[in-house]
Amino acid sequence: MSDHPIIRVQHVVKSFGNVMAVNDVSFDVRAGEIFAFLGPNGAGKTTTIKMLTTLLRPTTGSLELNGLDPTTHQTEVRKRFGVVFQDPSLDSDLTAWENMDIHGVLYHVPRHARRERTETLLRMFELWDRRDDLVKTFSGGMKRRLEIARGLLHTPKVLFLDEPTLGLDPQSRNQMWTLVRNLNKTEGVTVFLTTHYMDEADRVADRIAVIDHGRLVATGSSAELKRQTGTDSLEAAFLALTGTTIRDESATAADQMRQVARVWRR
Amino acid sequence: MTVVYILWLREVKKYLRSRVQIIASLGAPLMYLGVLGFGLGPVFQRAGEGKYLQFIAPGVIGMTVLFTAMFSGFAMLWDRQFGFLKETLVAPVPRLAIMVGRTLGGATVAVLQGALIFAVTLVAGFRPSSLLVVPLAFLVIALIAVIFSALATAIGSSIKEMQGFQMVMNFLVMPIFFLSGAIYPLEGLPRVLAALTRVDPLTYGVDGVRGLLIGRTHFGVALDVAVLLGVGVLFVIFGAWRFSKIEA
């Protein structure tokens, strides 16, 4: 890990009409570190990831990823990161191999390299034997592993993981974080993650930032946050920083669609 | 170009693997062919208009292409909410390439579905005036498919809720179909209805296909093709513009 920041967020504000989703947020992520971005529902985590991954433009403030501004150098920035979104983004009607192949083409990975890297990653993520199966036959954990493998196909410098373990059983979560840790060490990829499972952040993250109501409320290692709040667990530190009030979020269009999808699957 | 090809291939593969969708989508065209084709046949013939099945078959093919192409907008809405679209939107490729790949894929699926219905009409008794004109008719069918696939892309890029898409189907697609002259002749219509049929792009599509397959045309095939090309260019530009504005 180096002290050189690969991500710089400075005084970033993002508002949607009267709602300020992100309010004057600043932080750095060092190259090669695992950085956890924690916060309650609706705190501004996903909005921040969307701005860093070029899907949203900040209202004010500046962003930098690997020395480039995502708002002005979109294409160059996109080559430098991989992303696993909160909602699955695989095509369930295609096979694991086809999903990887489409990603490789979209990221201009040459055919030979694409095949080699796909095989390496599918083997690493224990999906090689299922490469020709349709993704809709996969378990939740397998889909998440495939998404991470796909996000790494073009050897990005930064991997964004937005609540990657949501809905997974403890075994799948454990396996996934072990793989992410190994990848961080072997490939030197910087990992920027969000999660609601404090034990996971405590286990894998080198540094943690806590966001609440769109504002950054603390940054530091797990030990530093515990010391700062006088608590003995990251979960207690998190609650001390963000309070115990339950956050109600209004259902988004995606939430409504998810509901419809559940009904259809029954 | 590879990006356009891989996204086009994705749409085609998904269609060919979805046997349920293929079979289910035969329902409405078969109903129109069976109920209207045979039910109204005697009335049509008594009015001196010839065999109704010959008349309605190009209309049912046009309807199939319209519905299938518009459904690609629904598929995009689904992709948008459930992620795959995000995968393409964060890729280092121009949005135009993504839009063109998706639109051509949707259009190809619509043409394949149209070909399937064409085969069904042949089984039902429809006979084109010559087999040589069939490939030309399919070029017109391809134009219809591109137009409505591009329109579907524009609509899928502009709305976020499933209910919104259902409204589009009810208030846009059904009028486009019923105003197109797919199921009735365009001659002798009341003035307002005649004017409305003229602003419907599908009218020229159905007229072009009918003109080529059975030699019966209202506007003339050359005018039909010219209008379809013009509308096609406009709709692709419109679809590309709307697609470029998507925020995930």
Textual characterization of the structure:
The complex is a heterodimer of chains A (266) and B (248). Chain A is α/β, with parallel strands linked by helices. Chain A has a domain at 5-80 and 156-265: Rossmann fold (3-Layer(aba) Sandwich). Helix content of chain A is 40%, strand content 23%. Chain A has a 6-stranded mixed β-sheet, with helices on both faces. Chain A has a 3-stranded antiparallel β-sheet with strand order 2-1-4, covered by helices on one side. Chain B is mostly helical. Chain B has one domain (2-244). Chain B contains 12 helices and no strands. In chain B, helix 3 (27-39) packs antiparallel against helix 5 and helix 5 (52-81) packs antiparallel against helix 7.
Domain count of chain B, please report it. Answer: 1
Strand content of chain B: under 5%
Q: Assign an overall shape of chain A.
A: globular
Low-confidence stretches of chain A: 262-266
Structural class of chain A: alpha/beta
Instruction: Using the coordinates shown, work out and report the CATH topology of the domain at 5-80 and 156-265 in chain A.
Output: Rossmann fold
Number of helices of chain A: 10
The overall pLDDT average of chain B reads 90
List the strand order in the largest sheet of chain A.
5-6-7-3-8-9
Q: How many beta strands in the DSSP annotation of chain B? A: 0
Q: What order do the SSEs of chain A take from the amino end to the carboxyl end, as H and E?
A: EEEHEHEHHHEHEHEEHHH
Helix content estimate of chain A: 25-40%
Distance between the termini of chain B: 24 Å
